[in-house]
Amino acid sequence: QDQLPPFPNDIAFRFVEQELGWEPEILFDQLDPLPIAAASLGQVYYAVTHEGQEVAVKVQRPDLFYRIGLDLGLLRRLAVTLERFPRLSRGLEWVSIVDEFGAKLFEELDYVHEAQMAQRFRADVEHIPGVYVPRIYPELSSSHVLTTEFIHGIKVSNKEQLQAAGIDIPSLLRRGVRTNLKQLLDNGFFHADPHPGNLLVRPEDGTLVFLDFGM
After folding, report:
1. Both ends of the chain: CA-CA distance in Å?
2. Is 83:75 a contact under the CB 8 Å cutoff?
3. Does residue 215 have a pLDDT over 90?
4. What is d(CA 104, CA 116) in angstroms, rounded to the nearest whole number?
5. Average pLDDT over all residues of the chain
6. What global pTM score does this model have?
């Protein structure tokens, strides 16, 4: 989820320069040299802007379009083969499933699209007490680099830390359930990747924070 092996910093920082037009040390007042999280599609760095705002800078892993395109091509060939044999395919349209999966995966590689989804989700939940979405910094973002407000929080799955911070866990769970039902039943627009790496709790007030809006 967020502790995969990171790719080298020199590649990540060179990618930031290529995408945003300036070296990271010029763009930011401070940028920690080690990623604070590494996932399958990108890794995140802690930074501070020249205005003193703490931000999270997500940098996409290199060569993802090629790697994922190759994987999807192989999966699609397997799906075509499966559909030729009804006993193996069990009547499912495997090619359509792979195509839909691939379309959503390539959407997730576009950080401009993710930024737009985050802003829409933020507007949907901003009136719900105790729920928050970090703000986006468009001027420090691109298709492959995404800069957002940095959140100091506890993973929603870390029960010990939540209890130590005095978080009312039943109340937190009710808020999470209500928010997810609202996404599904009222808005028709929902966070499709709500694993513990994408859900934080602010220890000072128990606010539930949603992260990562690629899907």
Report:
1. 14
2. no
3. no
4. 15
5. 91
6. 0.85
Where residue 43 falls among pLDDT bands split at 50, 70, 90? very high
Catalytic residue annotation: 193
- Residues paired with 56 in a beta bridge: 46, 148
Considering only the C-alpha atoms of the chain, give the largest distance between any 2 of them, rounded to a whole number of Å.
62
The two tokens of residue 106 are 């390539």
- How far apart CA 17 and CA 205 sit, in angstroms, is 37
Q: How far is CA 23 from the centre of its chain?
A: 24
Cα–Cα nearest to 119, from 138, 103, 105: 138
| Element spanning 42, H or E | strand 42-48
Residue in this structure with the two tokens 């989700």, named with its chain if needed = 121
Residue among 131, 128, 147 at smallest CA distance from 139: 147
- Structure tokens that stand for 34 in this block: 């080690």
Q: What is the pLDDT of residues 141-153, one digit of tens each?
A: 999 999 999 999 9
Q: Determine the pLDDT at residue 2.
A: 66
Supply angle C-alpha 12, 16, 20, rounded to 5: 170
Task: Name the β-bridge partners of 208.
Answer: 131, 201
Contact in structure between 33 and 10 (CB atoms under 8 Å): no
- The rounded distance, in Å, linking the Cα atoms of 128 and 176 is 11
